[in-house]
Design brief:
There is one protein chain. This protein is α+β, with helices and mostly antiparallel strands and about 180 residues long. It is about 20% helix and about 45% strand. The protein has 1 helix and 9 strands; from the N terminus they run H-E-E-E-E-E-E-E-E-E. The longest helix is centred in the N-terminal third of the chain and has 31 residues. The radius of gyration is 22 Å and the shape is globular.
Length: about 180
Amino acid sequence: MGGTRTTARIGLALAALTPLLATLGMAGAASAATSCSAVPTVYGIPPWGFHTGPYTGASSFAKGHGNINLEANTVSGVICQQDRAGTIIMSVQHHLVYHSHYATMWGYPGNIMKIKVRVTSSSDPECEVGTVGGATLFASYNGVRSDSVQFFFPAACRDQDRLYHGTQVNNQVPPL
């Protein structure tokens, strides 16, 4: 008789926990939608694109890609950054802020473009969807690997300000 009561209690406990576990499973799926896995990695030479190194084992990383029309001074695309503060996915705003084939950064010549971004998805509680920030992408040339990607955000998203620089960064910025 004691075994029957225990079995009944376990059954009731499982019945009570099932909706909670199902909800947690859905929350896990929702958070997966705000990971950088939602943004495909583009290999080869896109009109513009970058990745900042390995996605596993790094405390933070970013990747992005899109189209650019230098004659019309327009740009589009998607960028994702994932770090300890959370993951943000950004759309690239239409107007190309700046571009040059004759830039120098880190002591090396290269191509540079400056763009505006808007946060479209965020798991960082301090960085709200709709926040506008900026990014500077620099691609060194002449066989040098000193590429960089730098993000700038207003106060609410300041923990997403990040500089990626060095040989692990692979950046494709088109020339003029």
